[in-house]
Specification:
8% strand, two-stranded antiparallel ribbon, 25 helices, alpha/beta, 2 domains, 616 residues, single chain, seven-stranded mixed β-sheet
Length: 616
């Protein structure tokens, strides 16, 4: 009772002190598990990202070219977040034996993923983010697995990967041992260091967390093509995630496309109104820079054969044609299907025009010299899995090639040797060339087409040296060879009733206005000029000109119309005399009813706004 009514003081931790304690503790996992965090970042894809980042800082390369400086930092930030979460889990475990076990398991997973990635790249030129890996894994039988293990695991093939494994294990042990020693030396300074680290970590955390928003964007992407354009993170975990999403989307898109094409083929709604036999030849080139063509005013004589055809009145050259994307797989799917990408229509919701041609009674021949080009690349897989699906082969083609060749003239010879076109029937023949695809020096036989050299390039731009001028010359030699290949195709049909269309899938740049060659996805006027403006031309045999004067007259009147190649099928339906519900005369380049609305590129860029903008 004596204590009744007495006031007891309760010691409370000041809120500020509590906050500071928690605030400083965010650096605890970093300090305690720095080797784990560093090894995770380096082994899971951070090493090449760091090298690329350093290269951007130390060289004159634009920080805005892909991957941009911020994209590289974002990729590293994502790696940091994942490694930090792992470090937190390890730090929270109180039992030393359990903590060691979890840490060892985690290191084993990290090293195993790295070794699998290296093994695939070293032996099969496959990246772990390629959907092919998962398709092969799903389709591999037990016997095939045993053969694979005997051939690759229990052989000298595995040695380079085992060397990497040993090096990584040594790095982990050395790093852990050295850091344990350093921590003992810094034990009295730990609190002060954690305060400094905490202040530094806050902006890193915020930026890294923001960078993870790319996962949500990738998850909600409408197609694999959109995922690719987003440039998702390159670390191994993110790559596997992206690959699974891509594969699922591709399967869904493929099922939709195959189902639709079967329905169209079986519908009988399309028919041929031609009363005479006609050959329609479509030749799709590769990486053709319009401004490197003599036809379009280039100072070097890169297209002598085509210039002769133009001078003799058989070739009609179009001046304002673009592609929707500087990527073969994206462009090809949208060219071959009847969708209008400028209106947001997806390729898999519209039939392949070759299916319609075959259903309407045409023989359809598809000779593709990119059939086996980079077969392990994601873009080849996404394109070829559609074009060469067994169901598509049955309903879209009469015959296709089964091999590809170093030089395009061989694909023409292959077609000539195998196919004897029936003269009484209508035929659609499509050639897909390697054209001027990198490596330019490998695209033409040097003994007969090494016509231009570095001395042929008279430009004096400050960034050009002899080596770069030689690359430009090789590109021009590849263009000259492409002209020869086209003349060979023309000669096959010169004495028949034939109309031929030639255009490139996309352009390229080869030191045309800056110190760079290849392709990029920047939205600026010069990039669009060299990579999206493409050559487009129509050749008509003398017989065709005599038989179809109205169509030839429409072609002449259309050469200056703006056009995007996604809509080429409507022009083909017109010249083929095919009546189909999928024909739209407002998208037909040579129709009097043609209307060119805004040309919207695959990334939703408005072509005219950027191509002709000032100061861009």
């Amino acid at each position: 009772m004596g204590n009744l009514g007495k006031t007891h003081s309760v010691t409370k931790t000041p809120l500020l002190f509590s906050f500071k304690t928690r605030f400083y503790n965010i650096a605890g996992p970093l300090f305690d598990e720095l080797p784990y965090i560093c090894c995770y970042i380096l082994f899971m894809g951070g090493a090449p990202l760091l090298l690329e980042l350093v290269n951007k800082v130390l060289t004159t390369e634009s920080v805005n070219t892909y991957p941009t400086f911020l994209q590289l930092l974002g990729n590293l930030g994502i790696l940091f977040i994942f490694s930090y979460i792992g470090a937190i889990i390890i730090t929270l475990i109180k039992s030393k034996s359990v903590k060691l076990l979890i840490k060892v398991i985690s290191y084993c997973i990290i090293i195993l993923l790295y070794c699998i990635s290296y093994f695939l790249r070293h032996n099969f030129h496959l990246e772990i983010n390629n959907p092919i890996c998962f398709v092969l894994l799903a389709e591999t039988t037990g016997e095939e697995s045993r053969e694979f293990i005997n051939q690759y695991i229990f052989s000298s093939t595995i040695f380079p990967t085992l060397k990497r494994l040993v090096i990584l294990v040594v790095i982990v042990f050395v790093f852990e041992y050295v850091w344990c020693y350093i921590k003992r030396l810094l034990v009295n300074a730990k609190v002060a260091l954690e305060k400094v680290f905490s202040v530094i970590l806050i902006p890193i955390f915020l930026f890294s967390i923001y960078s993870t928003s790319i996962y949500w964007k990738v998850y909600n992407a409408p197609s694999p093509d959109h995922i690719r354009l987003m440039h998702p993170p390159k670390d191994l975990i993110s790559s596997v995630y992206t690959s699974f999403l891509t594969l699922n989307m591709m399967n869904d898109n493929m099922e939709t496309a195959i189902r639709l094409n079967k329905s169209v083929y079986e519908s009988g709604l399309s028919y041929n109104t031609q009363t005479d036999s006609t050959n329609i030849v479509v030749v799709i080139g590769e990486s053709y820079i319009k401004s490197h063509s003599q036809l379009y005013g280039y100072e070097l004589k890169t297209t002598p054969n085509l210039c002769r055809e133009e001078n003799e009145g058989r070739l009609f050259v179009f001046n304002d044609v673009i592609c929707s994307m500087n990527s073969t797989s994206v462009v090809m799917r949208n060219i071959l299907c009847c969708n209008n990408s400028s209106d947001g229509e997806q390729w898999y919701d519209y039939p392949n025009f070759m299916t319609i041609f075959k259903q309407a009674g045409y023989n359809v021949y598809f000779w593709d010299n990119q059939l086996n080009d980079t077969p392990n690349a994601v873009w080849s897989f996404t394109l070829n899995s559609f074009l060469y699906n067994e169901s598509m082969r049955k309903i879209a083609y009469t015959a296709t090639n089964d091999s590809s060749y170093t030089y395009d003239e061989k694909i023409v010879s292959s077609y000539k040797e195998r196919i004897n076109i029936p003269k009484e029937k209508c035929n659609l023949i499509l050639f897909h060339l390697m054209g001027q695809h990198m490596d330019y020096a490998g695209r033409f036989p040097h003994e007969t087409f090494k016509h231009f050299t570095k001395d042929s390039i008279k430009r004096n731009d400050s960034y050009l040296n002899d080596e770069k001028k030689e690359i430009i010359a090789d590109y021009d030699n590849a263009t000259l060879y492409n002209d020869y290949v086209l003349s060979e195709i023309i000669d096959l049909f010169r004495d028949t009733n034939t109309i031929l269309l030639y255009f490139s899938d996309h352009g390229e740049e080869v030191y045309d206005y800056r110190d760079k060659y290849g392709r990029s996805h920047e939205a600026n006027s010069n990039n669009f000029k060299f990579q999206y403006d493409i050559p487009f031309m129509v050749w008509c045999s003398d017989t065709y000109k005599a038989n179809k004067p109205e169509i030839v007259d429409n072609i002449k009147h259309a050469v200056n119309r703006p056009f995007i190649t996604d809509n080429v099928c409507h022009m083909l339906f017109n010249v083929a005399g095919i009546k189909t519900p999928y024909y739209r005369d407002t998208l037909d380049l040579i129709s009097p009813n043609y209307r060119c609305n805004e040309r919207i590129l695959h990334q939703n860029y408005k072509y005219e706004d950027i191509r002709y903008s000032l100061g861009n």
